Amino acid sequence: MIQSWWKDAIIYAVDVERFHDGNGDGVGDFKGLTSKLHYIADLGVTCIWLLPFYPSTEEDNGYAITDYFRIDSRFGLFEDFLDFVHRAGEYGIRVIIDLVVHHTSDQHPWFQAARYNEKSRYRDYYVWAHHPPPVAPGEGTIFPGEEDTVWTYDEVARAFYHHRFYHFEPGLNQANPDVRDEIMRIMDFWLSFGIAGFRVDAAAHLLENPLATPSEAEEIPDILRQMYKRATTFKPDVLMLGEVDESPQELEKFFDGSRLNMMFNFLLDNYLILALAEERAEPIQRGLTLLPQAPSNGQWANFLRNLDEADLERLKPEELQAVFRAFAPEENMRIYGRGLRRRLAPMLGGDEQRLKMAFSLLFAMPGAPLIVYGDEIGMGEDLSQPGRNAVRSPMQWDGSDNGGFSTQKKLAQPVIRDGPFGFTRVNVEEQLNRPDSLLSFIRRLTKLRRLHKEIQSGAYAILGCKSEHVLALHYKSEDTPLIVLHNLKGEKAKVEIDLPLDVGPLSSLFGDGGPDFSNGRLRLELEPYGIRWLGRAK
User: Fold this and answer.
1) Is 59 left (phi over 0), alpha (psi -120 to 50) or beta?
2) Cβ contact 342:391 at 8 Å
């Protein structure tokens, strides 16, 4: 039987360039990351997702790739990567990497050959047009305000090439069998070195072809199905984690059990952020109701923030404005008209109890939780940085110069020095020494979550509790019933719940105070932003 290890994984997102500098040159690297594996293991993480580490033009945070088969020399040698994967395995941590095959850099040898020679075999690796067709609704640029079009004219090729992302990231032609063969070769290469799977970048856009008619599009082989079949043939327990930010109706076609076995839960994240902004439980209840059921071989990856903007385009316009008022009152905190370029801690005002509640809420959602490096200590953002880089500051390890990230003066990106989120105030060392810190809380939370695997199954019920500010979830299990309550309001909340008949008295597993059970009814009072996990001790 294939082990679906990812179903109860705890995922940690790492940007190698900004995590830890192992050789003192101001850039994070694999030696630095390897030296911190004990910290990641102690956090309770079971899977590390690495952002791109390939040679690139250093644009778009490494997503403009020039070579799929090497390590960027700034991050070390290939042997350093292999040592990292091996050492992570010794800690029981699997490693997945970014698979960026929707586009390449315009400096990639394939594109350079394509633009200089119309008869080159690489010409059809990309989508070209002498007279680009009108852009269909919903197929415009991903970066409004930064890019004006999805067709850019190339003076050398004397034709327009297609790109959904930046103009320096020409889109690959997935309809070309040779391109699909290249993708399979890339996957085979990295799987052969022991990685556990891929985070499939721009997975939803891999199925697009701007020049194909609807009938032609139907005849193009489904690249995601081919990728999934190839990866699972090579490694039966491989993780294929897809970036698919689409409507609930569209999500189902990506999550049918034959394309991806995990997807980022962008839909639920929209409603989690709305709930935190409004301090009401209803948006989360709505998001859970709208969410398609994961297939038997699949799982949702839940998150509060990632290393891009918090994209909120699933919300209604008035809901988006409510989030902006609460979490992004200043224009430079917003991006693309649809998202936030802020870290979680400053969004929640640096309130440690509110942050603890938010992370407990994340870990109580059906699926696998994902944490972005630095969020476990409540790092802030740097709004002086351009675009998405605001949320990609170097990791803050201690109160020494550069926050312990590097001994070099010139860094890949400046550390946050000043204000309430500067490295002298917010760092790993300080929180390791404080039992009530956010970091200590999350370490306890990961242990609790790993004990209660019933959450990953998704068999839950939303319980009425007579408070619009409290979310109450009942995870159904034959031998270990679990009830989890969160008060999203900064005021005390009294809770009364009529329990299902099969749930007897439960004790407090996590959170302050004990419950009162009588005549099948649960009564308790939650503190402001209070938490309560109720069950039977394991």
Assistant:
1) beta
2) yes
Token digits for 322?
Answer: 């409510």
pLDDT tens by residue, 512-536: 777 777 667 888 999 999 999 998 7
Residue 136 is classified by DSSP as P
Full DSSP string of 52-109: P-S-B-S-GGGTSBS-SSS--GGG--HHHHHHHHHHHHHTT-EEEEEE--SB--TTSH
Among 244, 249, 250, smallest CA distance to 311 is for 244
- For residue 466, pLDDT over 90 is answered with no
DSSP summary character for residue 306? -
Helix (H) or strand (E) holding 13, with range, is strand 11-14
CA dist list (Å): 355 to 388, 408, 462: 22, 32, 22
Helices (H), 364-504: 428-432, 438-451, 454-457
Q: What percent of the chain has pLDDT over 70?
A: 97
Q: pTM for the full model?
A: 0.96
Give the H or E element holding residue 183.
helix 177-191
Catalytic residue among 29, 201, 375, 382: 201
Which ranges of 462-508 does DSSP label H, i.e. alpha helix?
Answer: none
Looking at the chain, the whole-number percentage of residues with pLDDT higher than 90 is: 83
Contacts for 112 with CB less than 8 Å, ≥ 6 apart:
none
Q: Which of 8, 169, 243, 375 is catalytic?
A: 243
Q: Active site includes 243?
A: yes
How far apart are alpha carbons 292 and 287 in whole angstroms?
A: 10
Q: Which domains does the chain have, with CATH numbers?
A: 8-102+177-449 (3.20.20.80), 109-162 (3.90.400.10), 459-535 (2.60.40.1180)
Segment 49-67 shows an average pLDDT of 97
